[in-house]
Design a protein that fits this description.
This protein is mainly α. The protein has five helices and two strands, in the order H-H-H-E-E-H-H. A hairpin with a 3-residue loop joins strand 1 and strand 2.
Length: about 130
């Protein structure tokens, strides 16, 4: 789940971590009541400052995805189906934005990206 956390990415690390956990919850990969790695464990695994993990967990708690229990850990909360779907849609929007940003850096027009995505999906175009 955390393999794609990239310190060179312009998106802050805490936001990358939070996004990965949101997606895992939305996809059902993390069930209600599942324990997340401890702050120290995740910080060591990602080789980042523990404060960054705390910040990610606090954002997730504010969004209603996890519950932080003092001295016990951080656990996944039950998330309604509509909220899981919204999280998936938000992530899809971020992915599309990132893809279009990267294409623009390479000089590829957005229309060409859309065409390529449709081809990958098997949608007839042009």
């Amino acid at each position: 789940m955390f393999d794609e956390i990239d310190p060179r990415n312009p998106i802050p690390l805490y936001d990358q971590i939070a996004a990965r956990i949101r997606m895992a919850v939305a996809a059902g990969d993390l069930a209600e009541g599942a324990a997340l790695p401890s702050v120290r464990q995740l910080a060591a695994r990602l080789r980042i400052n523990p404060a960054t993990v705390v910040q990610a967990y606090r954002v997730l708690e504010a969004d209603g995805f996890v519950e932080m229990r003092q001295g016990s850990g951080t656990y996944v909360r039950g998330v309604a189906a509509d909220r899981r779907r919204r999280a998936q849609e938000d992530q899809a929007q971020r992915l599309a934005r990132d893809l279009l940003d990267e294409a623009a850096k390479l000089g590829i027009p957005g229309e060409d990206v859309v065409h390529a995505v449709k081809q990958e999906l098997g949608v007839r175009t042009r």
